[in-house]
Amino acid sequence: MPPQRPAVLAVSGIKNSGKTTFLAGVIPVLRERGLRIAAIKHDAHDFSPDVPGTDSYRLAAAGAAAVAVYSQRRYMVTEEKTVSLAGLLGRFSAYDLVLIEGAKHSGYPKIEILRKAVSAAPVCDTATLLALCTDGDLKLPGVVTLALDDYAGAGALIIEYLRSRHPGRPR
């Protein structure tokens, strides 16, 4: 069976644990290694996909069920439509790695962010954990422990994971 394309890894933890900060730190490390990265952020609440006052916001506010904005370099589409995580992943097949922010109860391999000011124990199934990034002293058997800001170490761990599970992908 060929490896899943793209490779998927979740960065999980409870609210305000530092998931976005971690991703913003590790993505440049992975890009330096030549990986094309996509990111998907889960939001448990409805969100506003645009800024009030912009033309695209005005079009959606007027009742358009879908709005697209594009330029020579990028595009953005917002739709009033239910989508699954699997459906979103299908849109990113050209990337080497999709990093999902959230998905703590999924079966995807994970790096859990555990900041002692907001959480005392992991919330993810330890069988899915590649690493625990924490500012505390917690150690889990068979799970790598990294400092919250060890982006180089996390990047190396992710590269090694990709090499072992997805041969030929990382550089």
Write structural notes for this entry:
The structure is a single chain. 25% of the residues lie in helices and 24% in strands. The protein is an alpha/beta fold and 171 residues long. It has a single domain (7-47, 83-165), classed as P-loop containing nucleotide triphosphate hydrolases (Rossmann fold), CATH 3.40.50. The strands form two sheets. It has a six-stranded parallel beta sheet with strand order 2-5-1-6-7-8, with helices on one face. A two-stranded antiparallel ribbon has the order 3-4. β3 and β4 form a beta hairpin. The protein starts with 6 loop residues before the first strand and ends in a 6-residue tail after the last helix.
* Quaternary state of the chains: single chain
Unreliable stretches covering 5 or more consecutive residues: none
Structural class: alpha/beta
What share of the residues lie within helices? Answer: 10-25%
Task: For the largest sheet, list the strands in their spatial order.
Answer: 2-5-1-6-7-8
Total DSSP helices? 4
- Biggest sheet, in brief? 6 strands, parallel
Gyration radius, rounded: 18 Å
Report the sheet-strand fraction: 15-25%
- Globular, elongated, flat, extended or rod-shaped: what is the shape? globular
SSE order, one letter for each helix or strand: EHEHEEHEEEEH
CATH superfamily caption: P-loop containing nucleotide triphosphate hydrolases
Instruction: Tell me how many strands there are.
Output: 8
In CATH, the architecture is 3-Layer(aba) Sandwich
Average pLDDT score = 89
State the distance separating the first and last CA atoms: 22 Å
CATH fold-level topology: Rossmann fold
